[in-house]
Amino acid sequence: MTKLVVERFDRSQVTRQMLEEASSLFNEHYGLRGHVPDNYNRYCPFKPGPPGNAADLPPCDSSTHHEETGSRVRLSADLLLAKFLPDGSRGCYLRATVEGIFAGYALACRWAYGDRQVCWVTQVVVHRGYRERRLATALLMNVRDEGDDIFGITSPHPAACKALVRACGGRMNFLSLFFFSSTLPPISWYQRKYADN
């Protein structure tokens, strides 16, 4: 049996080396850019900005998505920290190793919403060679805290969503899109125009 180790670090414990390691894994294993449709501006569901100010947000800008279709999505260590574990967040970084080899990571942020504690997994990435072994599930199970009233993920990817369901014991209550749009923190992780910085 292979040995899986999941380590958890609070945002204040995250080192530059950890961010470089995560950035490298992201750049090599996250995904490829797709075609940006002509009507992207009209249908873009993720607009950056503070929660509750949707009317004041600038439109999504398809002109910033000039990277070639099929090219690797890239993210620098600095941007990883700024966009996925922003200053002031109660964030955490989880690292998974298999037989001592870095195989995946997850990033999450927590904040209070009324009298509830919200935890959003802002990113989960698993090395292609270690997928379909429930590494993402193990990472997400270790993200969860007993005090989390709401636990979600910012990924529409089916594998990430399935891992979230498994991490929650196979059951999920579904929330409205209004809840998501009104409670997301001011983290603009969908602004890909900055992804190559």
CATH class: Alpha Beta
Strand order of the largest sheet: 1-2-3-4-5
Q: Structural class, from helix and strand content?
A: alpha+beta
The CATH superfamily appears as: Gcn5-related N-acetyltransferase (GNAT)
Number of domains: 1
Kindly state the mean pLDDT as a whole number?
A: 75
Helix content: 25-40%
Q: Please state the CA-atom Rg, rounded to the nearest Å.
A: 17 Å
Q: How does the major sheet shape up? A: 5 strands, mixed
Give the overall silhouette.
globular
Name the poorly predicted regions.
40-66, 185-197
Alpha carbon gap, first and last residue: 40 Å
Number of helices: 6
Write the H/E string, N to C. Answer: EHHHEEEHEHH
How many beta-strand segments?
A: 5
Looking at the structure, the CATH topology is Aminopeptidase
CATH architecture: 3-Layer(aba) Sandwich
Report the β-strand fraction as a percent range: 15-25%
Walk me through the topology.
Elements: E1 4-10, H1 16-29, H2 40-43, H3 77-84, E2 90-98, E3 101-113, E4 116-126, H4 135-143, E5 150-153, H5 158-167, H6 177-183
Can you tell me about this structure?
- There is one protein chain.
- The longest helix has 14 residues.
- Helix 1 packs across helix 3.
- A 5-stranded mixed β-sheet has the order 1-2-3-4-5.
- The protein is of the alpha+beta class and about 200 residues long.
- The protein has a single domain, classed as Gcn5-related N-acetyltransferase (GNAT) (Aminopeptidase, 3-Layer(aba) Sandwich).
- The chain is built from 6 helices and 5 strands, in the order βαααβββαβαα.
